[in-house]
Each structure stands twice: as structure tokens, then as C-alpha cells.
């Protein structure tokens, strides 16, 4: 499990230690190197290019693996003076939908969501925006959904995090839904069939991951689940409520589809959603608690 310490695209330029989300870039400038002031003839190198590579001329750093490495700048015409900087490369979300007035992904790995009607493959529908947990949130009218990019999750190691505020609770209604086809799917439902519990479930293997509780209508709740090679954990407000094994591998096959608030069959979600994130890999419990706004030792 990994523990993302910052959001994607957040880079700490002003300190000795820089953090960089995997796949993003950081361009050091000569102004960061006081001993080289006025001297732009600098050669750059990385101690571990597998973690972060660097262009030897421009100093453009790109995260290529998770871990830490040292980026060194050497003044070619300054008597060989050097300055070194530690770069920490972390996992950022593969998708981050903030819903701040639009359905755009906050990073460039996947595209924006598109509005659907009352099923994941139907036209029409309306999604508006209102005040949410963080800035704005998406408002679903109970007859609409959002289709997310195909292939949003690929493999059997991933995490889904979202804030939900249901205006009403209806059985089987999905907050998040992903499917290879009509028989192989994963659904995060505020109210499931097992005693109206909030849960993650999957067909056609019919795997239930109930939380032992039902989240309230009219309030914001943070929901998340992580899958790591068949081991699943489901969280409510940062607390683990279910842990199990042998969860179906639905997304290793190419072409899976994804959506919010709708699937092919059930009553669409009515209410609000905010700050929806998908990660490649299983988040640690502390990371999930962090996303829920709860600090843990």
C-alpha cells in the first residue's frame, strides 16, 4: 500500500525537499541554486532515473517510479560547484474530479466526464453544481448520471474515494459503478440489499462487502474502498468497516466502463457528490483517513 502525501500537481518548490506526483514534471530553475546565480551553464543528473529522470540541459524532472532520488546540478564553468536536491516521487490519483463547476479531470491522465440520462448508456440528463465539501459539488437530480472515461481502472489494484450527500436513499442506487459487461461489475451503493447497509457489491460472482451501517440522507459522508489483488476494504468517514478476500477481478480486461449515479438497471442517485478520486493501487488506511479529513497517528 502507498500513502500519497500531497495531491497531484502540488510541488513544493520553496523547500529543500521536493515532492512530485508520478508522471508529472518539475522544472528546477537556476534561481533555486544561489551559488549559481547568473550562471546558466548547468548540467543536471539523477542518482536514480528509474524514480525520476532529468533532462541534463534544461533540468526538467519527470517522475517515473515511486521512491526518492537525488537530483544534482553541476556548474560546468563554475569550478565544478554542485547543489543537490532530494526528490520524493509519490502516487497521485489517476483521476480526480473536483466538480468545481465542471466535470473535468484535474490531471491529464483521463478526460472529462459526460452527462447521461437515467442509465449509463442513455442520452439526456442534467447535472448542476452547488456548494460542496471542497468548493463546489455535482448535483444529481435523480434522473441523470455521469459517464467517466473508459479504462479508468485497469487491473486488480485500485482505490476509489468520493464524498456523497444523498437527498434520498434507494436500494441498489450506485454512487460509483464500473463494469466489464452486464454480468461483471462493481458498485458502491449508499443503500444495498443487505439490511439497507451501505456497501460495495459485485456480480455475477455476487460478492457483498457490507459496512454494517447505512449512511444518512441529507449529510456529507466520505466513502472509499480499496482492492489489492482480491483483498477489499470498505471505509466510511475514514474508518474501515469491511475487510475481505477473493473480491472479483473485474477490471483487468480492457474496455471497462465507469459512471457515477447510474448503471444499466437501477434508480439513479439523487443528491450531491464531491471530490471523486481513483488511484492505481490500494491506499493505506492512513491515506484514506486523510482523504476523509481525519488524522491518524
Describe the structure.
The strands form four sheets. Strands 8, 10, 11, 13, 18, 19, 20 and 22 form an eight-stranded antiparallel beta sheet that branches. A seven-stranded antiparallel beta sheet has the order 9-12-21-14-15-16-17, with no helix packed on it. The protein is elongated, with a radius of gyration of 22 Å. 41% of the residues are buried. Strand 4 (52-54) and strand 5 form a beta hairpin. The protein has one helix at residues 285-291, and strands at residues 17-21, 25-26, 42-46, 52-54, 61-63, 67-75, 82-90, 95-97, 114-116, 127-131, 136-141, 145-148, 157-166, 176-181, 184-189, 199-203, 207-210, 221-228, 231-236, 239-244, 257-260, 270-280. With 297 residues, it is mainly beta. The protein starts with 16 loop residues before the first strand and ends in a 6-residue tail after the last helix. Residues 156-286 form the LamG-like jellyroll fold domain. It comes from Cohnella suwonensis.
